[in-house]
Design goal:
alpha+beta; 434 Repressor (Amino-terminal Domain); four-stranded antiparallel sheet; two-stranded antiparallel ribbon; globular
């Protein structure tokens, strides 16, 4: 009997990123310290985990769960969403991490324009793709639906590089979600009230 493709949790990368932000917007290095993993992983690996390029090993996944105050099952079960406020968040917000203050977070509102087209012109698949993208990707940014193709989203970020990374990860996830429904997308992101585009 042949082996099929290895199954992977679809939303694990997003949840790992949510944990870092839910713990007070820790830097990747501060997260490693918080999880007690300084001897095992580095900043590049955290970035890979959050972008879905790699998956953490089981002990690292357990450290994430313990550090956030959730169960490992909560991280790998795609039907479970993390709580809006992590149980362990009160222990890190406003505190120092080995003498360093947690980074101050900035907030920005952007307008995302999204057009979804099914390659076979099935409106039903387009609608399913849109609903899935809204629920799985956009709601975590406080989605405000302006019309059928426009949304306002709010991002918390440490600096411009962090904001760029978050937006490009989101755009990649939207593209993947649409592709699963045999759809293509056209998308633009613009900072509200400014001429900054992604």
């Amino acid at each position: 009997m042949g082996r099929g493709t290895r199954r992977r949790p679809e939303y694990l990368a997003m949840k790992l990123r949510e944990i870092r932000w839910g713990l007070g917007g820790l830097s990747q290095d501060a997260l490693i310290e918080h999880l007690g993993l300084t001897d095992y992983i580095n900043r590049g690996e955290i970035s890979d985990f959050e972008r879905g390029v790699r998956e953490p090993d089981l002990l690292t996944l357990k450290a994430y769960a313990d550090g956030a105050g959730v169960l490992v099952d909560d991280l790998i079960d795609d039907d479970v969403r993390l709580p809006g406020e992590l149980p362990a968040a009160t222990h890190t917000q406003g505190a120092t991490q080995k003498g360093r203050m947690i980074a101050v977070m900035n907030t920005i509102t952007v307008t995302l324009w999204l057009r979804i087209e099914n390659k076979d012109h099935f409106a039903r698949e387009e609608n399913r793709a849109r609903r899935n993208i809204e629920k799985a990707r956009l709601e975590q940014y406080g989605m405000n639906k302006l019309n059928d193709h426009e949304y306002e989203l709010t991002f918390s970020h440490q600096d411009d590089d962090d904001l760029d990374e978050q937006i490009y990860v989101l755009l990649g996830a939207i593209k993947s979600d649409a592709k699963r429904r045999n759809c293509s997308i056209k998308v633009k992101v613009r900072e509200k009230g400014a001429d900054r585009y992604w």
